[in-house]
Amino acid sequence: MDLDAIAGNVRALRSLLPPQTAFMAVVKADAYGHGAVPVAQAALDAGSSWLGVATADEALELRAAGIQSRVLILGPIAHEWIPECVAAGCSLTVSDAGVLEVLARWRGDRQPRAHIKMETGMTRLGTTLENLPALLNAAAASEITVEGLFTHLACADDPASSVTREQLDAFGAAIEIVRARYPDVICHAAASAGVIGHPDATFDLVRVGIALYGVPPAPHLRAPGLRAAMTVKSRVIRTLRVEAGTPVSYGATYRARRPTTISTVPVGYADGYPRTLSNTGAMAIGGRRFPVAGRVCMDYTMLDVGDAPVHEGDDVTIFGEGGIPVEEVAATAGTIAHELLCRVGRRVPRIYLREGRPVGVQVSGVAQPPAAG
To answer: Degrees (nearest 5) of the Cα angle 11, 12, 13?
Structure first.
């Protein structure tokens, strides 16, 4: 994991924003598989002023690591988590009166801070425009700080869609209602696709997820200066010369069409490499792509390397620098880069780099000191 790439991506994306617009680094889902704590720190050092997470335990993980920046929990949380999250200084998402009832009973030292989530067309979470006045009345009765107002754009990556304009119009109406009571409320709508494709949607704050990790949110939304932070590598653990007709892997769905060499790589679907890449995917060795031969196993994948000089111990790039871009691998697998990054398993060690040198290692989700030398 290249932490310099994370920092550079923050700076590149901030350059697209008005000076007054704040930046939130979205580090939910263990920072899209990259490691929440090191990514959060790199993003904050580079100029991010907010962190975004999805769940209470993700927020508290950041606090336990000593990170004291502003943290917004973007989704609803179980009511029993609310006191601990408020005590930790986290901002909560509110879209119904149930959360406000819990906050009204809060008697701690910190004033609860809430961001109201608006339903404008995603049909997932949030209060409607019709219910907004009642929610604001409940918020006033709870004596909480209404810190923010936000929505999520469903089609920001589609320039032909009218949905984004409709959502922004609805959000504008909500802003008028809320700012009549809370003039300083922080308004935000744009995620990565909105930042790059909809400059009119940046408002006071942007929430950057996939672009933070150097991956474009869509093929036509490539911001200059972005660099992928994650490269997944392994090594060849076996090579075997086989004759034409030799079956490979479960179900014998692949048979060598000629005398060839089959190389085994200790990466499988338990590590996040999709089984849908059976007989369709590829990995890179020495800068050359070699096709996946047969079905992807739980722990192993085989490659047909032909007559190439591939040997046990050779480096294999699953995706990333020196290999195939993650978005291309994801497209072949019938999914998106977001999912592929998040699926990289816990047993895959994360090695963190600064200026090309290791500065930390995470193994099975546990941080380790960098190796000596």
So the answer is: 95
